[in-house]
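Appendix C. Worked example: DUF5916 domain-containing protein
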Amino acid sequence: MRKFFLSLLSFALSLLSGTSATSQIIPKTLEAKRTSQRVVIDGKLNEAAWQDAAKADDYIEFRPVIGRKEAYENRTESFLMYSDDGLYFGGTCYERNVDSIARELVGRDGFGTNDYIGLILDTYHDNLNGFEYFVTPLNEQWDAKMTSNQNSDNGGEDFSWNAVWQSAVVMHDKGWTFEMFIPYSAIRFSKDKVQDWGLNITRRRRKTEQQYTWSAIDPNVNGFLTQEGTWQGITDIKPPLRLQLSPYFSVYANHFPVNQAGQKNWTNQVSGGLDLKLGLNQAFTLDATLIPDFGQVQSDNQVLNLTPFEVKFNENRTFFTEGTELFGKGNLFYSRRIGGAPIHAGGAYDDLKAGEKVVKNPTESKLINASKISGRTKGGLGVGLLNAITRPQYAVIENSETGESRQYETDPTTNYNIFVLDQTLKNNSSVSFINTSVLRGGTDYNANVTAGLFSINNKKNNYNLSGQAAISHLDYKESGTENRTGYSHSLSAGKTSGRFTFNLSQQLTDTKFTSNDLGYFTNNNFLDHSLYVGYRYTEPKGWYNRLFYNFNASLSRLYAPIGNLESKFQQANMQVNINAQTKKLHWLGLYLNYRPAQNDFYEPRQLGQVFRRNQSVAFGGWIETNSAKKYSLSMEAYERVFLDFYDLNGLDLFVSQQYRFSSKFSVRHTVNLQPRPRGLGYTSMDEAGNPVFALRNVKTVDNTLFLKYSFTNRMGLTFRARHYASVVHNKQYFSLNDNGSLRSKPGFEGTNRNVNYFNVDMVYTWQFAPGSFLNVVWKNATYHNSDLIDVHYFQNLHNTLQADQNNNVSLKVIYFLDYLRVKSWMQTTRKGEA
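Step 2, the predicted output written as C-alpha cells:
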C-alpha cells in the first residue's frame, strides 16, 4: 500500500507541472444581441427581430468524423437573442431529402428516434455546470442539467430536471424551422451588469448518426462543457422572482378481491397537495412537496432475491429525481430510503402472543413532506439541502379469540437530511463536503455520515486525481449499547483525455463504517484495488465508425480478518472488452472474463464463515442494430463456466425488439432468460442454525411488453406489462465446512420455490397547458408463490393471472402556476377592463 500512495504522490506532482498535450480547438464567440420587439413563438421566424439576432452557423461535426464541416444542403442556421424576459433561439435545420428527417412522438423528455437541436448554456462560465434545452422536428421538448464534474457520481446529463418554456416547429420542403423562448425563470444566473455565458449548440441527424456543434468538440478531450464557446456581452438582465406552484388533485379507486377478513375489498381516496418552487435569490431555489402523492409512479421490478444483499430499486418519484445532482455526490444517498420499508416490520411477528395474528402491517412509511434547497453562487459554490419527514407506522395485531387488537410500532417518526457544499476550482476541478443524517424518534438509533471529496485536473484537462474520505456514526439511545464510528476512503488517478486513457484506484472501508440508513450499502470491511486501461479510435476507418478496447482488473481483500478465518483474500477479476460502431450504425461488443478461486464471506449469511468457489471463466457478446430503422434489435448473451467445481454453469440471454409502425405508434418487447441448470448457493438454515447450501436448477424469465401511442405531441397513451417468473428446484443439499468447502447433507428437506410477479402500468397523459398535466393511470399487481416446479412458462403465467389481483385506477390533475405569467395576465385584464 505504501508504494501505491507514493505513486499517487508522484502523480500529483506531475499534475502541477501540467505535462502532456492534447489537440487544441479554439472556442467560438457569439455577440449577445438584445431585442425589445415582439416575437410570436410559431416556428416561422418571420418577425423583424430575427433580422438583428446574432447568427450561429458553420457547425462542425464531431461524430462520427471529427472536424468535418456540414454539407451545405444539410446545413444548420441558428439565431440567438435576448430580451428583458428571456432568450429567443431559432433557426432552420436544412435537409436535402425531407424523408431523411427522423421523427417520432415519444412524449416529453423521451429521446426516441428523433433528430434534434439543442442549446447548452453554462451561465456561470465555470466549465462544470450547464442547462440544456432541446426540441425535435415534431416539437417535443426535453431539457436537462449537465455537469462535467468528474467528482459527480451521476455526472453527465440529468434529464429528470424539468423547466417550463415555449417552442414551435414548422416542417417544410427544405427541412424544419424552429423557435424557442426560454424565460429567465427557467435559468439560473448572476446579477452582474455585464455577463459572459458559456454556450454551445448541438444538432443530431439520427439516420446518419451525425452530430454537429456550433463550437467544435473533440470527443477525445475530457468533458463537453470544457470545450464550450462564449456568448459575450449580455447586459442588464435581472433574475426574476421565481415562484411556481403546482397544485394537484387526485382520485384513487383500489380493488383487491379479498381482505384479511375474507371480504371483498374496495377502497377509495381523494386527496390534494402542492409542489412549490421558490427562487430564494438569483442562484438558489426552494423545492417543496406538501402532502405528496406518488401513487402513479411506475411499479417496481420485483424479483426473487437469492443473494445475501438487498435489491436496489430505481427511483421513479419525480421530487427525488429532479435536480438532485448535488445530492448524488459521494454515492451516499439512496432516495428510496425515504418512505421505504419500516425498519421493524418483521418485529410485529416476533411480538405475537398466543392466539394473536398480524392483520395489518404497512410495507412503506408515509411521507409527511419533503423540501430541498439547491443552487450555485457566482463564485462557484454549490449548496444543496434536502429534508424529509415520515410519520410513524404501526402494525395491527389482533387476538383471534377475544377480537381485541393492539398496535405495534414498526417505524418511528423519522427525519432525513442531506447537506452538500461543492466548490468549483480552476481547470474543471472541485472540492465537496456532504453530510447525511437520519434522526429517529423513540429509542431507535440515529445515523450520520460525513464525507469530503476532491477532483483535480491539470491545466490541459487530460489527467485527474480524485478521492473521498467518509466517517459514519451510529448513535444508540439505549444504555448498554456502544455507539459505532467507522471510516471509509477512495482514491483514484488517471489519464482522462486522448486515445489512450487509464485509471488506478483504491477503496478502503473498515469494519464499522456504514451508510445504509440513507444510502445503498451492502457490506464493509474491504480493501479493493482496480485498474482500467483503454484505447479508442474515434474516427471512421475500414468497417467501423468508432472502436474501443479496454482491460479491467480488480483485487478485493478484507480490511480486517473475520473471526478465526486466516485468509483475507475475497476475489479478483480480469476482463477484456472490445466495443465498436459499424459503418451501418450497428453497435457490437465482445468480452472475456477470468475469476480465480474466491472466498465469499457473505453467502453463508453468518459472520465468521466462508464459502469457497473455484475459478471460473465468462465470455459473452452483445449487438444493437441501427435504432433509426423501423425494426431494431438489441441482444446480449453471457455464460460463466466454473472449472472443476460441481459442473456449475450459468447463462444470461437478453433480447429486446422494437417495431415502429409510425411516428405515433410503436411496440417494444424485452425478455431476459437466465437458465441455470446447475447453480449452487445458500438456501436456508438447519435446526441447529447452520447454513445449508443447495445444488439447484434455477430458471428465471423476465418478460416485458411496452406499447406506446401518441395522439399529439402533448397527449399519449402507454401500456407496460411485465411478468417475472423464477423457479428454484433444489436437487442436493450440503453443509458448509470450516475451510469453505461443502459436504453432502442427506435427509435434509428443503423448499422448492416458484415465484411470480405480474404488473400492468397503463398511463394516459395530456399536457393541456405549459407544465400542466392530466394523468389517468391503471395499475395491476399480482403475486403468485408456490412450490410447483414441473410447469412450463405459459402454465406459470396462467396460474399467476388466476391469482388475486390488486387493481388501482387513478386520476390526477396537476396545474402549473407561474407568478410572472399570472401577474402579466392580471395586468392585461385590468387594462382591458379600463
